[in-house]
Each structure stands twice: as structure tokens, then as C-alpha cells.
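Moderator note: this is an archived Q&A kept for reference. The question asked for a predicted structure of one protein chain; the sequence and the answer are reproduced below.
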Amino acid sequence: MELKNDEMEKLYAETFHSIEEGTILKGKVVSVRPDGVIVDIGYKSEGFIPIDEFSEEEVAQLGPGSIVEAYVENMEDAEGVVTLSKERATQIKVWENLEQALRDGTPVEGKIIGKTKGGFSVDIFRVQAFLPGSQVDIKPRKDSDSLVGKRMLFRVIKLNNKLSNVIVSRRALLEQELQKKKAETLEKLAEGQVMQGTVKNITDYGVFVDLGGMDGLLHISDISWGRISHPSEFFAVGDEISVLVLKYDEANEKVTLGFKQRKPDPWSLVDEKYPVGERVKGKVVSITDYGAFIELEEGLEGLVHISEIDWLPRPKHPSKYLSVGDSVEAVVLKVDKDERRLSLSLKQIKPSPWELVSERYATGQTITGKVKTITDFGVFVGLPEGVDALIHISDLSWTRHIKHPSEVLRKGQKVEAVILNTDPAAEKMALGLKQLMPDPWLQDIPESFKLGSEAKGKVLAITDFGIFVELEGGVEGLVYSSEIVKPSSGKIEESMNVGDEIHVRIIKVDCEERKIGLSMKNLKKAEE
């Protein structure tokens, strides 16, 4: 039905009276122009919203038929257009929401847009609010600058519409959430209860775990059944972990936690699981001057003392044999469940060098080795099996009078010797150097040095009890002090020196005692 002109006028009049300046209404977009948006508001004249009140993203989404909410600023202007403001409508709505949020405590979303003196500026739907520094978090933050640009929820704590003064708090929401979590945690908190938590802080003595609104302390001694130097070996801040409530002091709200207690103590069955003599496998977890610690399983370690690493009499530093992380096989030597100690041996996995010696060598056998040590009483010769055998000073020569082994051998010298005897149980082996040749006292010396015969030799040493003389073939004899022809002064040194050649007569040959007695006087009498 077509309306008459007077009816049309009446309808416009009604519409006119329903649209007033200062009201907020909804309209339908007619067109989008470079300078603004034309909106049909159900009035005889169309509304106009400046384009700069829209963001680029909003403009991109606008089109004919789109619904927008706007504030009526001016009724018809000279061109018959109603001036509208989308920004003012949004601002009014925001203030209404802020007032409502202040009344009932509803959180509002905003974006921290900058740092100011004493706090931050927060944009809440184009309304600028102030976030005091004390209201940012429950505890002071070191990284507060990183909050700029982030969107988060806030609580309105003060509002003055006339002065456009809005103060918000993030801390209030966090405290509320904390109390809520704490209440939930307290409902299920009990000794013996397994709970989930987040590592909040790590110290030298333990770890603080956030159980949800309240913290618990996990002491370093309750982290592992095994050795631990610092809690950071096991945890990092932010880790989600499962812990056992060991103790809850309700009056002081203190919670003591355990981590190792979630598993049985490996030491409780150590004597059954690792009996003495058992071969075990493990990983080297620590090396010290006195040995190495081997982890057999989580929380259970055994010590390989330095003396049990190698069969050598003086083993090198443990680090020369092992490195942290090495997988090794060992033998259980001792188990002390009460003291939580386990002694292991690496060397006993291999045969003892003396076992090899007893299998490979026999008395009378000639062997080769290097001189390792020279002492006053003899020489130690190293054998390939890693043992040292002794050549006593008395077994260096059949005939020479040796004051020190260094007169015959030097350190590092390769030498052949004869095995005189072996005692693996006592870890001893005796060698002889002189036994490489037949004993000259049995035949050669009695035949070569006849009693009463004359001989010449070289002076080896002059002593208070006589003069040692080297005879033919390296055989030594002694001119007794009573048989020496002394000079008129009475001092032998004035008429004789070491190295001098002298003539003597053999007055004694004792094969059992292996001694040859000489005389200078006897020879002189014979000459006279």
C-alpha cells in the first residue's frame, strides 16, 4: 500500500523524535567512502561516521549491510546529514563496562602499551588506564619491561568518569587465583600423598616446588638415594615434577617434600642383590684421587679403591684408567648395608699377574726383563706380566766382592737372569745373574789357584782388615792385614794405591766359604 505525503511526514516526525543527540543507536552501512561511512539510521537523513574512527582492519571488513553502533553527535547539518561517532559510542560502552567491573569485580582485558612513572599505561578498548608498579605482580618482577605489548586481564580498583581516571590491578587477580588454587591444594594435601608441582626456585640446599597456591621444600637430601652435589643436576626452574608429601605443618603452613621416596631404597636389598663375589656392570659417575665411583643402578653406587683398579704395586691415578661415563664390569668385594657402602674391584676381573707367573715360569728358567729399581740389597727386574722379581746382591757375581748393585747394573738396563724360586702366594720371585754361568768355585778356581802358588793382581780396595785384590779371571782374593808388607812409615796408602799391580802368594783356598787368602810377607820371605 502506498503511503500518502502526510503519512510520510508523520513517520519522519516520529523517527525524528526518537533520535536525539547524545543517544547511541545502531545503523546499517550504506556505503564506505574515503572520508567516511554512510549509515542508514532509520531517519529521513543518513548518518555519517568519519573514516578515521575505524581501524584499517575494521574498514576492510565493512560493506553495505554491515551493522555499526554509533553515538549521535549532531542532528542534520547544512547538507542534511546526521553526524555520528563510533569512537564515542565505544567509549561510553567501555565506561559502562568498567563501572560494572568495578561493582562486581569482573576482570577486564587490556593491553600494556607503555611504561610510565610508577607503573604502566594500559589500553582497555581505547580507554587509557594506569597500572601501578605495586599492582603488576604478587612479587616484584625483574623483567617488567617484557610486559609491554602483552594483553592480559586486570581488575578495576578505582574509577573516576569525569576525570577519565582508571586504575587497574593485575596483582589482585593473581592473588585471587592463588587463593583459589591454595584452597584446592589444601583439600587434597596430606602426608603420604603424591602431588604434581612446578619447580619454582633452586638453592644450594634444595628446591622450592609450587604445589598450587602454596610452596613446598624438597631438600637436597630427599632428591636422590645416590650422591648429589647440587639440586640443579636433577631439576630446572619450570620443570613439572611429581613429589611425595613427607610432612605437613598445618599451623605454619610448611610442607616438606620427597622425590626419592617415590621409589624403594635400593640399599634395602643391596646384600641380596649384590652378594660378595658377584660380577656386576655399571657406569663411572665420579673419579677421585683415591678411586672411582660406579653406579650400578639409580641411587646405588660402589667404590673401586685405587688399589683395586690395577694389579700394579703402585697404580697410576684413577683418571689414567677410567673416564666418567665409561661402562665397566667389576667384582663385589664387600657389602655394608647399614653404612650404605659397597666395595668393588676392577682388577679382579682379570687374572692376577702372579697367577700368570705361576703358569708361565718355573725354577731354573732363564728370563729377560728390565732393571726397574736398584736398592742397597739388590735389583728389582720388571717382567712383562707386571710383577717385579729380585736379584739379591749376593746373586750378582760368583767371584766379585760387590758393595752396591749399581757397580754391576744400571736402571733401565735389559738383563737376563735365572729363576731361583717363585712364591706366588707371597708375591715374590728370586732371580740370579751369576747363575747364568757355572759356579767357578766347583772346579775352575781350585784348579787355577793352587795353594802356595804365586800370582799377580790389581788392588781393588784398601781396608783396615786387608787389601782386596782382583786376580786372573776376575776372581777376588784378600791380603790379610797381618800378611801385608808395610812401609817404614806404617801407612800402606803411602806405598800403594787402588789400581796398582802387586804380587802375592796364595795361602788359603776355601771353596765352601768361597774365599782366597793372599800374603805379601810370605812371598817376600821366599824371595829373601
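Archived answer notes: The longest helix spans residues 86-104.
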